[in-house]
């Protein structure tokens, strides 16, 4: 059974047209992450939620926003997508505790901005 | 700064053994992960090392030397399905509120040939 679910799996949008990607998890993990991965590049952390606390990376564009209405769901909003935002967007979750906290990834959303 | 280096591509023969190296220089260290990522799919967890030495899990083993900033992933009895990218990720800086960040390498694309 899928534990981290992302919708949609594929999204095509026009330049400047807002888009929302969703992530849900059945693991009851307290931390949720959003990564951007461009072709042949490493996943790049955009931001993460530790419980309800939002942590933004310093170099994440203001164009990217996130919401976490409850433990299970997290959304990535791209307010005005540019062509350079074409990428795979990965949601991950973890339960932070002493020792390792493995991140479990969803299947990703492939976003194409035209 | 954060710097994680892995070879870009490797090719190996079905049934053989392959070693994928990773070197890192990060501002902190709280463990090293290896993930497997098939083309167009999300990363899946393979292994975790936080202490020096070898961790074995079936056909996959991972080694860590913290003093050298070095890790490797060893894959034995290669199968065609092992063709994928292998991502080295270091759990480094403490992000506050009890969470840590993962910094990923760009990944090593492994091609297994008959």
Describe the secondary structure blueprint for this structure.
The complex is a heterodimer of chains A (114) and B (114).
Chain A: E1 4-7, E2 10-13, E3 19-25, E4 31-37, E5 44-50, E6 53-56, E7 64-67, E8 73-78, E9 87-94, E10 104-105, E11 109-113
Parallel strand pairs in A: 2-11
Antiparallel strand pairs in A: 1-3, 3-8, 4-5, 4-9, 5-6, 7-8, 9-10, 9-11
Chain B: E1 3-5, E2 9-13, E3 18-25, E4 32-37, E5 44-49, E6 53-57, E7 60-65, E8 70-75, E9 84-96, E10 99-104, E11 108-113
Parallel strand pairs in B: 2-11
Antiparallel strand pairs in B: 1-3, 3-8, 4-5, 4-9, 6-7, 7-8, 9-10, 9-11
Your description of this structure?
The complex is a heterodimer of chains A (114) and B (114). Chain A contains no helices and 11 strands. Chain A has 114 residues and is mainly beta. In chain A, the strands form 2 sheets. In chain A, strands 2, 4, 5, 6, 9, 10 and 11 form a 7-stranded mixed β-sheet that branches. Chain A has a 4-stranded antiparallel β-sheet with strand order 1-3-8-7, with no helix packed on it. Chain A starts with a strand and ends with a strand. The mean pLDDT of chain A is 91. Chain B is an all-beta fold. In chain B, the strands form 2 sheets. In chain B, strands 2, 4, 5, 9, 10 and 11 form a 6-stranded mixed β-sheet that branches. A 5-stranded antiparallel β-sheet of chain B has the order 1-3-8-7-6, with no helix packed on it. The termini of chain B are far apart. Chains A and B meet through strand 5 and strand 10 of A and strand 5, strand 9 and strand 10 of B.
